[in-house]
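Late entry, written up from scratch paper. The run itself happened at the end of the previous shift, but nothing got recorded in the book at the time, so transcribing now.
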Amino acid sequence: MKYMVGYQLRISDDFIEEIIRYKEHIYEVYFSWADFPNGRNNQLEHESLTLWEAQEKQIWDLQRLSQNGLKLNLLLNGNCYGRHSQAKAFFNKIGDTVDYILSRFGLQSVTTTSPLIAKFLKNNFTNLEVRASVNMKIGSMEGMDYVSHYFDSYYMQREYNRDLAKIKQLKNWCANHGKKLYMLANSGCLNNCSAHTFHDNLVAHETEISMMENAYAFKGICWDYLSDHLKKESYLSITNFIRPEDIDLYEPYFDAVKLATRVNKNPSRVLRAYVHKKYTGSIMDLLEPNHSGIWYPYILENGNISKEFGNTVLHCNKKCNQCNYCKEVYHQSLIKLEGYYANE
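Output as recorded:
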């Protein structure tokens, strides 16, 4: 299996070196650019670097990746572009940006949530693969067909990561229509989150929001929900992450697998875990978002999760109210930390 890895701006070169070290396992490195809203925070707003220093560091990092033969994917996957969404000036800016990146580093693909951006790219950059973002929540043949003139490939809706029948259905449709299918392996989001769209909109407007005197902070309803002791027991059944040990189960169905690493505190650890298909430590440390703080001083020890877990949930009937399997695995893997704990 090959992986898409999210670029993270860091002062040290540790993560860049790790990506280059494992480049035979890397399908693409995906990244956001400048002030374009994207599915995460503006990475150029770095606590230790000025805006210009941050931009220079990103340019240097992308150049190194490109020189080492790694392919790049530009993220234009903001959930909202506000008044700019249909503006000519906005699309001129996109065109200039893509032209620059193509000439400076090379570019294999662009991931977007906007059908209009996809249309613009298809009309003006015919050699680029245009990919539908996971945030579009495309999880049906109809959903793919509706936008098939705009997109060459799709990220599957994350809620179907453990539904083999659905995966096979979507894979067959893509194969019959000349499209590629990808998935996100290490999302920590709750399935069918009621506030997901709201949260994505906040992220898209975070620069504006940060300038306001705000009444509330919002980091997701998941934090309050999982703080309830009884809700914690359902964690494995209401999430969709794929453990490194189970990744081979997906080899026949996906062209590559995305790893969320853009805000993880230790992105190298995530990459190593999936490349080596093995990890010992808190499974939440591999996920975005990472909810481990809610459980402390307990963790869900990945090494204690049943070896059959991935295969079992991939084939189950999804009638969770009639089954306690995931709760049993949860309690088997839950351990209390004693003294200092680290897994680097």
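The two ends are 23 Å apart (CA to CA).
(Scratch paper discarded after transcription.)
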